[in-house]
Amino acid sequence: MESAMTSATILIVYHEKATRLILTNFLQPEGYRICGAANWEAAFEQLQHQAIDLVILDFAIAQQVEGGCLGKLLSLYPSIRVVMICDHCSLEEAVDAMKQGAVDFIHEPHDYFQRPFEPDHIRTVVAEALNRSPAAGVLTDDFNELIELARQCARQKDFDQARKLIGEAMKQAPERPESLTLLGLITEYLGDRLEALKLYRAALGLDPTYQPADMNLERATTNLKARPRFDDVL
């Protein structure tokens, strides 16, 4: 418990600055490193640039993101614990979030300036969440979303997670060339150019008109100094 409390980094994703400051004031004295974001885009930017142990996620923000951001968050970062926070949501919605991988819920008191959060409750929820096993990461079954998540992981150099997502994408649509192309980019980036060439050619075997595979094959055979770019997939 002590090591988690003194070393964990927490990202508070909430639309109101006042709530982010209240939660920060509760948690910072416990030794946590706290950062904040007002929306999903800002949160994702922070997730790309620093290791986060726990996310306190605004339920309203999660609902606004097309397709929901909780599943995407846990697919990209399966070691992160997520605690949802909301001022009003149904029991069914809370249960659904827990099924997706959230480890707990914080209910924001109505009119919290007059009846504020209970600091001890917040600290207990966070401490218990940090000491629970991370969610396994609920993977989507949408091919395009899997490839996009894999590409984002590759850009962050999380190649093990990227390969896992590519494997799931190939199960969903083995005939699509994007999976082999992205796998080729990862393989080339890691130094095995000959194996990468085979993967680019295999992608073109699936779809001879797929330009990203054709362009990467040409680049890898004509410009040995050029590094692969993970944007060159979709």
Please outline what is shown here.
With 234 residues, this protein is α/β, with parallel strands linked by helices. 54% of the residues lie in helices and 11% in strands. It folds into two domains: 2-130, Rossmann fold (3-Layer(aba) Sandwich); 143-222, Tetratricopeptide repeat domain (Serine Threonine Protein Phosphatase 5, Tetratricopeptide repeat, Alpha Horseshoe).
Roughly how much helix do the residues carry, as a percent range? 40-55%
CATH level-3 fold name of the largest domain: Rossmann fold
CATH superfamily of the largest domain: Response regulator
**How far do the termini sit from each other?**
44 Å
What series of H and E elements makes up the topology? HEHEHEHHEHEHHHHHH
Biggest sheet, strands in spatial order? Answer: 2-1-3-4-5
3D shape: elongated
What's the rounded overall pLDDT mean? 82
Q: What portion of the residues fall into strands of 2 or more residues?
A: 5-15%
Low-confidence stretches: 1-5
Quaternary structure annotation: single chain
Q: How many H/I helical runs?
A: 12
Query: CATH top level of the largest domain?
Result: Alpha Beta
The helix/strand class is: alpha/beta
> How is the main sheet built?
5 strands, parallel
CATH A-level architecture of the largest domain: 3-Layer(aba) Sandwich
Secondary structure tally: strands = 5
